[in-house]
Amino acid sequence: MLAELSVAPNPLILDASPGGGRPEKVPSETQVNVFVQPSTDEGRYEIDVIDIRDGQQSFNLAPAIRSGLQHRNEHGHRTLPSLLLWDERGLKLFEEITYTPEYYLTNTEIALLEAHSREIARQIEPGTILLELGSGNLRKIRILLQAVEALGKRLDYYALDLDRRELERTLGQLRADVGGRGFFRHVRCHGLHGTYDDGQVWIARPENARRPRCVLSLGSTLGSFAPAEAAAFLKTWAGTLLHTNTNKASSAPSSSSSSQILLGLDGCTDAGRVFAAYNDRAGTNRAFILNALDGANAYLGYEAFRARDWTVRGEWDARAKRHVQYLVPLRDAQVTFLHARQHRHQHQSVTVKAGEKVELASSYKFDDADRARLWAESGLRVARQFSSKDGSYGLSSLSLITTATNISHFLD
């Protein structure tokens, strides 16, 4: 789940293969549309997850781990890549976080979907590809899919996430929750194993581009990005949805004019409420953040970090309107990079002083003014806006601006 804490130093170019190493090359025949359908055994159903990763691209977070500890960011902190959070255990821990009483974001968004899912479903055309970025445990999307099903609209839902086993588990749970063996009659559900980058390539394929498309980002996932990064991210996805329509070399018909983005975004700046959400009394957030150290060890291939020597510190930055999660060593921690011995001119180890904050993840909050700037900078406009009672949380249906000027802006 690429949820609200899922930012990385360059999230648009990173793939994820928990455990590190080179992902297996993916044969092209595995990258086709496959439905959740009965198996040959009576009463059993296959959960089909399509591997859309770039099989030619190696992936390992070890270089980002080394670089982040050897250098400091614009805030003066050493860093670790937040993709370390999203291994199989991390995804399950985050799911637990969404059930804690302090984590208001999930319940707020669920309430909005329960109140407005039917109206949202009416605006989704039959035949749409519904692609959810960082799908997680599917609690929220289930509400919208049930509304679509009730209207008798046929569409294909694709859950995009980084961990294949979690996709299989959550899609299986979705099937059980909505009726077991019958599943949906009109909505067909699929898993996509890959990153945001892989998802962009996949949804731009001619067979997908000729259909209406709706990209969903729920849970304030976009809050993982600083405002400028968030605008660039949205602009990239809007450009992807527009691309086929603006590519004259393509003979495939496009449905970009009926494509849209559905985005959940938090704007709460109540310091106490925000702090509690990311620092729950039960300690689930703490376990979630510390798990990143185990992920780092997995990518490095040895124990460079001992979790018992570290603690977690959450801080609310009122000026930047963001909550930050730091890893802090309880005593001086020497992190050794074994393979650096091959390069005598590079540091073989880094010492992180006791009490020094290592930045892992940020959660930015976007108020009404921030959102207006975000839409303007990303080339989107609000078609419909659904807000919480206090106005702090918004669920926005965004349409693509397809004027000649805007198209030129995307293609530059």
Relevant terms:
disordered C terminus; four-stranded mixed beta sheet; single chain; 412 residues; 16 strands; 12 helices
Outline the structure in words:
This protein has 412 residues and is an alpha/beta fold. The chain folds into two domains: 28-58 and 90-270 and 367-411, Vaccinia Virus protein VP39 (Rossmann fold), CATH 3.40.50.150; 62-88 and 284-364, no CATH class. Helices cover 34% and strands 21% of the residues. It is built from twelve helices and 16 strands. It has helices at 62-70, 88-97, 104-122, 139-150, 164-177, 196-203, 206-209, 227-246, 271-278, 284-300, 368-378, 404-411; strands at 37-38, 45-46, 49-51, 78-79, 129-133, 155-161, 187-193, 213-217, 260-266, 310-317, 322-329, 333-336, 349-352, 358-364, 380-387, 393-400. The strands form four sheets. Strands 3-7-6-5-8-9-16-15 form an eight-stranded mixed beta sheet, with helices on both faces. Strand 1 (37-38) and strand 2 form a beta hairpin. Helix 2 packs antiparallel against helix 10 (284-300), helix 3 (104-122) packs parallel to helix 4 and helix 8 runs parallel beside helix 11. The longest helix is centred in the middle third of the chain and has 20 residues, at 227-246. The radius of gyration is 21 Å and the shape is globular. The chain starts with 36 loop residues before the first strand and ends with a helix.
